[in-house]
Design brief:
This protein is an alpha/beta fold. Strand 3, helix 1 and strand 4 form a beta-alpha-beta unit. The radius of gyration is 17 Å and the shape is globular.
């Protein structure tokens, strides 16, 4: 590990898009947020939300820009959407994305030894699976000559409103009469039984052998999409399995509070930066 990180930095950034991966339905792209300075900079892979069926690499741009300005090389990738291919296609993208970023980091003045991840809503669910099962052969299906000797382990995972128990979230959608969410879930988990196999909470309940990187969960107090109680249970299970998990509740906030500029969105960025700084410091001490 050759990089240092000061979350109080205020650096200029350069932003551009590159080809990430050629999928069956379309070419997936990546957006690079590169701090301007000496570097090398710690690197972060960002996965967007959208209920597995929508959005792209631009969905989390305000957060990505704030993190990059603080001195993090942020790379946000498109994910295969459920109508293009159901689970585990997006998790395969995430696994490949981690390995790809490790291979490309130096080219963008980043440090491959520091790669962590950020995931929002369904992107948090996808990244929880990828982080907990980094060497799963189903997830490592996309080969790369550049990343042949690299694995998909991450130094940490920061999430916002992750779908840590998709089955419970589906039940909540039924209770609230949210037909689009019900349909989106059924499109992604096809066949339906995969909602159990690809359920982070159930994976821990089954005591499967998993990798548990340090985890941050940011959760809106008033979220009626992914309930705070679900995150509390997942955080407790993660800790009981031996992992480090921090749960930060945002008072008065719903599911998408970070999309609204203001004090709580600013606070979310500061919480993420502080979490990353502490994980990188621990990583440096252990090196």
């Amino acid at each position: 590990m050759n990089s240092t990180y000061n979350p109080a930095n205020e650096l200029e950034i350069k932003v551009w898009d590159v080809e990430f991966r050629r999928a069956r339905a379309r070419t997936l792209m990546a957006r690079i947020y590169q701090p301007q300075g000496d570097g090398p900079f710690p690197a972060v892979l960002d996965l967007h939300g959208g209920a597995w069926n929508d959005k792209d690499r631009t969905a989390n741009a305000p957060m990505d820009e704030k993190l990059a300005t603080s001195g993090l090389l942020v790379v946000a990738i498109d994910l295969t959407l459920a109508p293009e291919a159901p689970y585990p296609a997006s998790v395969q993208d995430a696994n490949y994305g981690v390995r790809w970023l490790k291979a490309k980091a130096r080219e963008w003045n980043g440090d491959p030894a520091t790669v962590g991840a950020l995931g929002s809503s369904s992107g948090g669910h996808v990244m929880e699976l990828a982080a907990m099962r980094p060497r799963d052969p189903r997830y490592a299906a996309h080969s790369s000559s550049e990343a042949r000797d690299l694995d998909a382990t991450v130094a940490y995972l920061a999430t916002r409103s992750p779908v840590s128990d998709p089955l419970v979230r589906f039940g909540q959608a039924e209770k609230m009469g949210r037909e689009e969410m019900i349909q989106n879930t059924r499109i992604y988990f096809n066949p339906w039984e995969t909602i159990h196999e690809a359920n982070p909470q159930e994976i821990l309940d089954r005591r499967e052998p998993v990798t548990l990187p340090p985890l941050l969960i940011m959760q809106g107090e008033l979220d009626d999409n992914v309930l705070p109680a679900v995150q509390e249970e997942f955080a407790a299970s993660y800790r009981a399995a031996g992992g480090h998990c921090e749960l930060e509740i945002f008072a008065g906030c719903e599911h998408m509070w970070v999309a609204t500029p203001g004090p709580q969105a600013d606070r979310a960025a500061e919480v993420v930066k502080d979490f990353i700084a502490r994980q990188l410091s621990a990583l440096s001490r252990a090196a």
